[in-house]
Write a structure and sequence with these properties.
Helix content is 40%, strand content 16%. By secondary structure, the protein is α/β, with parallel strands linked by helices. The chain has three domains: 109 residues, Cobalt-precorrin-4 Transmethylase, domain 1; 106 residues, Methyltransferase, Cobalt-precorrin-4 Transmethylase, Domain 2 (2-Layer Sandwich); 41 residues. The strands form two sheets. Strands 3-2-4-1-5 form a five-stranded parallel beta sheet, sandwiched between helices. α2 links the parallel β2 and β3. α3 runs parallel beside α4 and α10 crosses α11. It starts with 7 loop residues before the first strand and ends with a helix.
């Protein structure tokens, strides 16, 4: 089947198992003039495996603007480019925002291919009530930031990435902040030692007492107690004290660990 040609392609690559790449992705990587990648050494291993000879050019957060100018010149000359990350789908916690913004601004055609992503691979095997979740990328490093963000999203299923060096400390802070919450944690997705554990935070800490290896995707289950807050009453009380809707949203989200945007939406509905 004939396929439309684009100037710029966003191409997912395997998150672990090298076979997790689409036939279309392989075709595109062979056809484009350049492949923009985070680490040429990492991408070259994938290209070698599939006998792809396309030239790789490094594109990472430290040279985004410089490389963007070069790629725009090549696009103007009629060349085509594919953007890949070291693993998974570009733009999900990976560089790409600068170049994509400029490509759209300059009127070049752009498309993204479906493919591997740690988030969807994780969520598709983790049971939860409803489809809603909040993804925050890599969770902040400091204890204060972790406490703030886990309180803020107490009423939501909160999904995040973390490193094996930090995850146990992160879980400890979550336990101190949110108590004995339910956690889903996956490591080494699609690899030989893939493991997904769903349990209380204490049991997961005990399970990995000897340490943990591999890239981490984690979800803190929503605190059902957060849903018992009588929002309408609280909103009405704060309105009577002269607070505006946006101020009310910030106050209630902070006090009860709710989603600020959801509180604001509720405040608008209660007018």
């Amino acid at each position: 089947m004939a396929q439309r040609k684009f100037d710029f392609y966003i191409v997912p690559t395997p998150i672990g198992n090298i076979s997790d790449i689409t036939l279309r992705a392989i075709d595109i990587l062979k056809e484009v003039d350049f492949i923009a990648c985070e680490d040429t050494r990492t991408t070259q291993k994938l290209l070698n495996h599939y006998d792809i000879k396309t030239k790789c050019i490094s594109y990472h957060k430290y040279n985004e603007r410089e490389r963007t100018e070069f790629f725009l010149q090549e696009l103007a000359a009629g060349k085509s480019i594919a953007l890949v990350s070291d693993a998974g789908t570009p733009m999900i916690c990976d560089p790409g925002g600068v170049i994509i913004e400029q490509i759209r601004k300059n009127g070049y055609s752009i498309t993204s291919l479906p493919g591997a992503s740690a988030i969807t691979a994780f969520l598709s095997q983790v049971p939860r009530n409803g489809e809603e979740f909040c993804f925050i990328g890599f969770i902040p490093r400091t204890e204060a930031q972790i406490k703030t963000i886990t309180k803020q999203y107490a009423g939501s299923n909160l999904v995040f990435y973390d490193s094996p060096e930090r995850i146990l400390k992160t879980l400890t802070v979550i336990k101190e902040t949110r108590g004995e919450v339910k956690i889903a944690l996956a490591r080494e997705l699609s690899k030989l030692f893939e493991e997904t554990v769903i349990d209380t935070v204490s049991n997961i800490l005990n399970h990995f007492n000897d340490g943990i290896k591999g890239e981490i995707v984690c979800m803190i289950y929503a605190d059902t107690k957060a849903e018992t807050v009588d929002l309408e009453m609280k909103i009405s009380e704060l309105r009577c004290k002269g607070f505006k809707d946006k101020e009310i949203a910030v106050i209630l989200a902070s006090l009860f660990g709710l989603n600020k945007n959801e509180v604001y939406k509720k405040a608008l509905e209660c007018k």
